[in-house]
Amino acid sequence: MWGQNFRPSFQELYQLKRFGKPICAFTGTATIRTQSVIVEKLALVEPTIIQMSCNRPNLVYEVLPKKDQSGKGDVVELIKRRFPSRCGIIYCSTTRETLELAYELKTAGISAVYFHGQLDQFEQQSNSQTWFTEKADIICATNAFGMGIDKHNVHFVIHFTMPKSLEEYYQEAGRAGRDGNTAFCILLYRFEDRSKLLRLVFTSEAPDEVRNNQKIALDTVVSYCLSKNCRREIILKYFNDNSEIRCNNTCDNCNNQDIISPRNLSEQAKMLCRCKEEMLTKHAKLSVKQIALTFKGSKSKRDVETKGFHEIASYGVGRGAFKKDANVITFIHHLITENVLQEHLRSISDPCTTPYITLGNNAKLVRDGMKEIIIKI
Fold it and tell me: Which residue of 16, 296, 298, 313 lies most exposed, with the fewest beta carbons within 10 A?
C-alpha cells in the first residue's frame, strides 16, 4: 500500500473479506501508523504482523545542498565526478524535470533517458528498455517509475527534489544496490523546494486531515535533510526498526570528521520568536532572511535598515549565539519543521513570491518552557 492518493482503489479492498478467504498484505515499508491503516482498510481482525529489518548495510546515505539555481548543474557535476558510466536512477518531482534533466545530461555527454506517467505506453516501454538493457546509463523519472523495478546493478539513486515522505524516499532509494555492492542514495536539498511541494499539498482537493498528514510527512523529510545525526539511524527509528544500528560511516554525517555536539537552543528560540513579533510593528509580512538578519544584527540596508528593523529592542540579540547568518537561517528552518514558526505561501496574485513567517502552534510551548529545542547546528 502506497497511500490513497497513489492508489485510490485500495480504499475498496476491504470488500475482499466477503469471500471468506485468508488475506495476506505485503508492503515494502510501513510505519506503525501505516500498519494500523492497512489493518483498518482491509478490515483485518487481530492479524499477525511480521516485520523484517529495513537496514540495508550496503547503502550509503547522503544529503547534498543544491548550489546552482536549477540544481541541474549540480547533478551533471556530481555524475561526472563520482559516477561516470555507472547505472543510476534520478527521481524528479515533475514530468518537465525528467525531460529537462535528461536533456541536460545528454548535452554533457552522459547517456540518459526519461520516464513519467504521461508518456504513452510505447514510449514508456522503449525508454525503460533502453535503460534496462544498458544502452543508457541513467533514467530520469517521476515516481511512476518504480513498481516492480529490480535491476541488480543500480549504483546510485539521486533525488533531484525532496520526496514527499520518508516512506517514498526509502522505497525509491532502495532500488540501488540490489546486487549487494556498495551503492549511493543521494538527496539534493534546498529548503525552498519545501515551499513548492507544500503548495501542491494545500492546493489539492484532499480532506484537511490528509493534507495535514502530508505536511507532517514533508516536514519529516526536511528534518532528515537538516539533521546532523546518523541518517541510517533516523530512517530505522522512523520505521520502528529496533535492529542494532551499525552505520560504519555509511552516511555523510557519520563520515564527517567534525564533531558537532547537540545544543539546547530553547532560549534562542524564545528570543527569536520575540524578535519576530517586534518586527511586526515595522512590517506585516516577514521573510526567513529578514528575521535571520535582524536577529543576528546585520546592517543590511535592503533587508533590515530600510524596513526599520534595526530600531526594535531585539535587534541583534542572537549575535552571540551563531557565527554565520547561514546558521541562523538553518536554525529558523529547524523551528519551521518543529512548528514553532510557520511558513505561509503567498497567493498567486501576490507580486511577492517569498513565503512569510508567523508563529506556529508550538511557539507558546517553547515560550512557556514546555518544549525544548535541542539540535546539532
Answer: 313
